[in-house]
Amino acid sequence: MLRSLVAGILLAFAGSRANIARTILSCAGIVVGVGSLIAVVTAGDFGQRFATAYSEANAGRAATLSVSSWDTEITDVRAFEEDLVRAGGVDVSIYKMVEGVSMRSGEQGIPDVEIRAVDVSLGDIRRMTMSQGRWFTEADAESLAPVLVVNESLAADMEDITRVQIGTDHWMDVRVVGVSSSSALDGGWYTAFLLRAPASEELIYGEPVETSEDGATAPISIRDPEYSVRIDPSDPAATDPWGEVFTERLLSASDRWGEVRQDSLMAYRADYAEEVNQVIGYLSIGLIGIAAITLTTGLLGVLNVGLVTVRERRRELATYRALGATRFTLFVAVVMESVVVSLVAGVIALLGCWALVAAGGAIAASFIELPPDVPIAIPPTAVLVGLGSAAGVGLLAGVIPALRALRSSVVAGLRE
């Protein structure tokens, strides 16, 4: 059987090379169909990665909650943050606007800067894309001066990014360690992230943080706080867009950190990962349907050419039978010829798509700024799907002509 299989494959290659015109004709429909399928998978893969990166940069990674309260005072910030973790928070970061703080660069005052107090963990909650420098690290918390990350708009209008001061009733020198790409989550045109650390606590809380004689930190109070909290996507609270499940968990221990009413505490799903995945899923289904129709048209074209080929080659196939070729060898030869033609078409489609994607990526990069880890490229899945579908179409299109070839009479074929 193996010998017959090898012989059939060799006959298939010989037949393909001997009938170049027919091979090219058979390729046309498959090239269009496979190319469409590769393009659809590539577009879906890029759309998924780009939408995920955009969502993570502008709203947070999957299952990010925004937790805030209004007209209330949290009397013990550390207890409140401990309960945010107990309620299901994997990463927790303060995200509070710092009121009444001015900024200047060199001798230039910068008005209307929105300064947000954050923690290092915000980099785990959101995708912080840096155009210069870096995001905060734990070592920055030990800095003797407040530490900032500013967005691109603010950095571009600074007189000297190395000479920056902020303050209320007096100026304090600060260190700018990075410039972040501007995003939709920036509350203002000028946005600065201030790392919560001992050097900046007075700016954030409005008063010095007191310590007792034994060195323990006294409870810190804060009014109308806002936090970003990332929970496990498998947590039941992640399926609650309005955060009622998480709010109930948090309020169960509210006596530890303040008298907070249920209607003054709000938690809601800030990211839109699920919505993005649904939209891309629907688009992919529609595009795959169109590609499948195109591929079916190509299959019918190969099938039609295969039937014509078998009719024209009856004498040739009968001669093979007369010389000792088995029925299985001829079956494999006819089917494999169809598969070879389809695979050649699949390779041509793949090369064409690669050229189009390379050109499209170069053009897109000149108009929009793509995330550094989201290149426009054909993914391995598209290659496998494209070549696999080409081989499958060739296999299906070759079965019927092969069966017809086996039914042909050897004697009648030799007489032609």
TrEMBL record:
<dbReference type="InterPro" id="IPR003838">
    <property type="entry name" value="ABC3_permease_C"/>
</dbReference>
<keyword id="KW-0472">Membrane</keyword>
<dbReference type="Pfam" id="PF02687">
    <property type="entry name" value="FtsX"/>
</dbReference>
<feature type="domain" description="MacB-like periplasmic core">
    <location>
        <begin position="23"/>
        <end position="184"/>
    </location>
</feature>
<comment type="similarity">
    <text>Belongs to the ABC-4 integral membrane protein family.</text>
</comment>
<protein>
    <submittedName>
        <fullName>ABC transporter permease</fullName>
    </submittedName>
</protein>
<dbReference type="Pfam" id="PF12704">
    <property type="entry name" value="MacB_PCD"/>
</dbReference>
<keyword id="KW-1133">Transmembrane helix</keyword>
<keyword id="KW-1003">Cell membrane</keyword>
<dbReference type="InterPro" id="IPR050250">
    <property type="entry name" value="Macrolide_Exporter_MacB"/>
</dbReference>
<feature type="transmembrane region" description="Helical">
    <location>
        <begin position="328"/>
        <end position="357"/>
    </location>
</feature>
<keyword id="KW-0812">Transmembrane</keyword>
<feature type="transmembrane region" description="Helical">
    <location>
        <begin position="377"/>
        <end position="400"/>
    </location>
</feature>
<dbReference type="InterPro" id="IPR025857">
    <property type="entry name" value="MacB_PCD"/>
</dbReference>
<feature type="transmembrane region" description="Helical">
    <location>
        <begin position="279"/>
        <end position="307"/>
    </location>
</feature>
<feature type="domain" description="ABC3 transporter permease C-terminal">
    <location>
        <begin position="290"/>
        <end position="409"/>
    </location>
</feature>
